[in-house]
Design brief:
Chain lengths: 541, 384
């Protein structure tokens, strides 16, 4: 039988390690391109300040990147360690994009990144620029393959279950690769990373501007970041991935939960701006609705209805019954009965096998599950509504807040009055954490909204685990959280330390707080400096 | 599809082996450097030299491990599932040790405090020593077979809750395999340091080559005798056609003394692997002694190829034999992915691996030359 506590712990471990990992990914995705842009300006114009910008922001990039690599290692192995049945069941399809990610993207990024940091004196200007480019390209291609893999978990196309091998097998690599859900997610995710990097560079530059230090350096960094950021934030919002939510049943369910759409309403559906979803009464209390908006966003039409939760549950109950037939005949096939009748019955119902497996939570004897069990399993197909409803709305609100901030920064920067807009600069410093919150919420919506499935409509999460013990999981979960938190504290310390020190940390003698040529070593941290920086963020008046 | 299913299954055994050997030759080198770091570098300046010989490359090298993991997932999902969850605590230990490396390399020299730097030195040591030991231990256990079985839905189960724990893995033969792996990679790293540093570091590294080389040879020989005399292998009695759809439960397997040597009588060419293991190590030691570390490095890469190859060949066609339910063992023929996936992945490797090798060589070539204390001092705020 399924041990709920063990499944919960496995889920917590995956969620925690993935969420930690994604604290570091978005900055890498965006900042790598900004480094390339800064360095390209340096190579074209020959202005040393752009080289210093590349190196300084590159230093902060490296501090972040190190933990991205650390936490990423876990992700590559955790499917095997903690989701063994998942690995067996879908490895034929899911493993391929992961392996190709290594071969095509991760090698590229990781082989060149060392030269980015350490090759300044050993490479020509153009060679180093190429190195920076390949690092950025590699990290972004990496995201592509990971999202192809993740997109397949959401919308598993291009594959079929095989009774002989008892697993999903790939039928078309092109379909897996060109999965529309994956494409939409990729664009949305990398653009979110670009926004994160823009907000990061803008925030820290704004802090220098508020303190009146390194103005030339901060101003140029700020300009690159606003230009990059305005394009990115518009892409994130315009190409928001809700458009992908109509594809496949799992996405439809997720959409209904995000929108607290308990009942199907005639098209075009209204968008619920705010309200209090109530799973008991299946109503959204105090709802504020915008007519037409949801129908337009989700279906790109005014005539298609958005399916509500009650209808989905009913539909899923029917699919569970069909899945029971599939399971019954699968058992016969596995027992060696290869008669045509069994084969035909299985083939007719195998698309619903995953729904049949949902019953395994309540009975081993899936073929003879009771009506009550079927009803419970059908209810299970709907993830809890309120967490999704609110996370999604907070994410969107943060997106618009960042659109406003970046838009304002872009505008005043164009008019060259940004230094006078102290309110905006201050807001930008305090807004540094916002993109991270939005990214984490976005992933929460995507993955929590996929429940109860590990692979949508194919493999329930509770079946996907390894056969470990609860004690194993308590040990490892504690270890991961402890270790990661310890490293995160160190990372934050270094990040703040170098952000406060600013470009002076390059030791060129050209920047705020340096006593001219010669103060090149980092070890002079303890020596007194003029213009000592105060704690972040307390802008000097 | 150009290659038939049976051939592809075999090709993938070679490719996974190649990725693992690639991992051992590249990342094994910087792990070996980590193993030596606290001993061949006496001062902070010396340790920075040691770190900066691998500083630009360790990250790319580590991708061999990541890619080997991904390739096992894609090509042998059943192995990825059973081995990674079965060796749970060992995997965790390796992961936790590896965590020290990215941060160790990047953060160590960003703060001047001596305690901070010493702490990261030991972190880098752990990040090299634990994996180089544990990977050997894992191989040692695979050779002997591990206690697991597959149920009718092909879900792996482990006999006794202690299997997933670390302690039962540490049996004498597996520990010997761990020592061989540790010595082999440390020798490899020492040769690298001899090549890329000046005295006194290079001299200390040269001494380490002698010690580690001797341990590796003695260990490898002892393991050979042990396998010949005392370790039972597995033999397939009957199985479906080799190009059949993979079903790990459809074959019959017996435990058989001497089965680990079957491959050498069937295919004498296989003896080249252990021969390369011995000859490579001896050559590496001689060349290192003669002050030719560049050639010694090639010899030591040959030795690694031979030793890893010997382990793989001796087990062939088994990848993960089960000691308690031999019928559940996973082999090259029945743990593989579908024909399509193996084909797609084959082409991915054919296209991308040469590119990887090409730019890796370019990167090493650009950063070539001896790393010196003076050079580090001149670039103190950028060097690791």
């Amino acid at each position: 039988m399924i041990d709920d506590a063990f499944v919960e712990l496995s889920r917590w471990q995956f969620a925690a390690t993935a969420m930690y990992h994604f604290l570091f990914v978005p900055l890498t995705l965006g900042l790598s391109w900004m480094l390339f842009m800064m360095e390209a300006i340096y190579v074209m114009s020959g202005k040393v300040i752009y080289r210093d910008m590349t190196r300084f922001w590159g230093k902060l990039f490296g501090i972040n990147f190190a933990l991205g690599v650390t936490t990423g290692l876990t992700m590559e192995f955790q499917f095997g360690t903690n989701w063994a049945y998942y690995s067996h069941y879908v490895g034929d399809v899911f493993g391929a994009p992961l392996a190709i990610e290594g071969l095509m993207a991760f090698f590229l990024e990781s082989t060149f990144i060392g030269l980015f940091f350490l090759g300044w004196d050993k490479l020509s200007k153009r060679q180093h620029l190429a190195v920076t480019f390949f690092t950025a390209l590699g990290s972004n291609l990496s995201a592509l393959w990971i999202l192809v893999a993740n997109g397949w978990m959401q919308n598993p196309i291009g594959a079929e279950f095989s009774a002989e091998t008892m697993r999903m097998e790939m039928q078309s690599f092109a379909e897996v690769l060109l999965n529309p859900v994956a494409q939409v997610k990729f664009v949305h995710t990398v653009a979110a990373g670009y926004v994160t990097a823009a907000m990061f560079v803008m925030g820290i530059s704004a802090w220098y501007m508020l303190r009146g230090r390194d103005l030339a350096f901060a101003g140029r960094s700020f300009s690159v970041a606003t230009g990059f950021g305005i394009a990115a934030v518009l892409s994130v919002i315009v190409l928001g991935d809700e458009s992908g939510y109509e594809l496949g049943d799992v996405q439809k369910t997720k959409l209904a939960a995000i929108e607290a759409e308990y009942h199907t309403v005639p098209a075009p559906a209204a968008f619920t701006l705010f309200g209090l979803p109530n799973d008991e009464t299946m109503q959204t209390d105090y709802a504020v609705r915008i007519p037409y908006a949801l129908g337009l966003i989700a279906t790109r039409s005014t005539t298609e209805p958005v399916t509500g939760i009650t209808d989905l549950v009913q539909k899923h109950a029917a699919r569970i019954r069909s899945g029971m037939v599939a399971y019954e005949n699968l058992e016969k096939l596995r027992a060696g009965d290869r008669s045509n009748a069994v084969r035909a019955a299985f083939d007719a119902h195998k698309v619903d096998l995953g729904y049949g497996l949902l019953l395994k939570r309540y009975t081993e004897d899936v073929a003879n599950a009771t009506d009550a069990m079927i009803e419970r399993a059908a209810r299970d197909t709907i993830p809890p509504v309120a967490p999704l409803f609110f996370s999604f709305r907070i994410m969107v609100a943060l997106g618009f807040a960042m659109l406003f901030l970046i838009g304002a920064a872009f505008w005043f920067n164009m008019r060259r009055t940004i230094l006078q807009q102290r309110w905006l600069l201050r807001a930008l410093v305090f807004a540094i954490p916002l993109p991270w919150i939005a990214c984490e919420l976005g992933w929460f919506v995507a993955e929590f909204g996929r429940q109860p499935w590990a692979i949508g409509e194919v493999l329930p999460t509770f079946l996907a685990t390894s056969t470990l013990t609860t004690a194993d999981l308590i040990f490892s979960l504690t270890g991961f959280i402890g270790f990661y938190t310890f490293l995160l504290v160190i990372e934050m310390y270094l990040m703040v330390h170098f952000a406060r020190k600013g470009p002076a940390s390059l030791g060129t003698g050209r920047y705020h707080g340096e006593r001219g040529r010669g103060a090149a070593d980092l070890d002079d941290d303890e020596r007194p400096r003029s213009g000592h920086a105060g704690p972040l963020p307390t802008p000097a008046e | 599809m150009i290659l038939d299913y049976e051939t592809l299954k075999l090709v993938w055994w070679v490719l996974v082996g190649a990725l693992l050997i690639g991992f051992a030759v590249t990342d094994g080198m910087d792990m070996g450097v980590g193993n030596l770091l606290p001993f061949v570098g006496r001062t902070d300046a010396e340790r920075r030299v040691v770190i900066n010989t691998v500083g630009p490359h360790w990250d790319g090298n580590q991708v061999w491990l990541i890619t080997a993991g991904g390739a096992i997932f894609a090509a042998w999902p059943a192995v990825y599932a059973a081995a990674f969850s079965g060796f749970y605590m060992a995997m965790l230990l390796v992961l936790f040790a590896l965590f020290f490396r990215p941060v160790g390399f990047d953060y160590r020299s960003k703060i001047g405090d001596a305690r901070w730097r010493r702490a990261w030195d030991w972190g880098l040591f752990a990040g090299g020593a634990v994996p180089s030991l544990i990977f050997g231990v894992a191989f040692g256990n695979l050779i002997q077979g591990v206690p697991f079985h597959l149920d009718s839905l092909l879900r792996p189960h482990y006999e006794g809750s202690l299997f997933t724990a670390l302690l039962p893995l540490l049996n004498p033969f597996a520990l010997l395999a761990g020592v061989i792996s540790f010595a082999m990679l440390t020798m490899h790293g020492a040769i690298w340091l001899q090549m890329r540093t000046l005295d006194p570091i290079a001299g200390r590294a040269q001494a380490a080559v002698r010690i580690m080389g001797a341990v590796a040879i003695a260990g490898f020989a002892l393991a050979g005798v042990w396998v010949a005399l005392g370790i039972d292998g597995y033999r397939i009695v009957s199985q479906p056609a080799l190009d059949a759809l993979p079903n790990p439960l459809a074959k019959e397997v017996v435990v058989a003394p001497g089965a680990l040597l079957d491959v050498y009588s069937r295919q004498p060419l296989a003896l080249l692997a252990p021969a390369a293991g011995f000859a490579g190590t001896v050559l590496a030691m001689l060349l290192s002694r003669a002050g030719r570390p560049g050639r010694a490095f090639v010899a030591s890469a040959l030795s690694i190829t031979g030793i890893v190859g010997t382990a793989g060949l001796s087990m062939f066609p088994f990848i993960m034999p089960s000691s308690t339910h031999p019928g559940s063992s996973l082999t090259v023929w029945d743990a593989a992915s579908s024909h399509l996936t193996l084909t797609v992945m084959f082409w991915a490797v054919v296209i991308f691996l040469p590119m990887v090798l090409a730019y890796t060589v370019w990167c090493y070539a650009r950063m070539w030359g001896k790393v010196t204390v003076e050079e580090i001092a001149a670039n103190s705020s950028t060097a690791y």
